[in-house]
Amino acid sequence: MESGTIQSQATIIRDFVAHPGMKLLVDRLQNKIGAKQNAWLNAKADEAEQIRQDARCYAALMGTLNEFLLRAKADEAKPKE
Fold first, then answer.
1. CA distances from 30 to 37, 44, 55, 70, 76 (A)
2. Are the C-beta atoms of 14 and 69 separated by less than 8 Å?
3. Number of domains in the chain
4. Which of 2, 23, 74, 81 sits at a 20 to 30 Å CA gap from 12?
């Protein structure tokens, strides 16, 4: 992928992550996960697994967003031709 495309995508993701709506979403999800973390510690195996599956969705979203930013950082570190 071209450097310009990588950097452009990263800029879009940075703007998206900085958007007030995204901040509200992240805060709400972190609160939900924090509340479930305590429940997870005392849950039976099948209940604990459901809590873990719920948290995986959030982790997948944040991981995907971070992929764009990490790709841009690696692109910036590459020596320019």
1. 10, 22, 9, 22, 31
2. yes
3. 1
4. 81
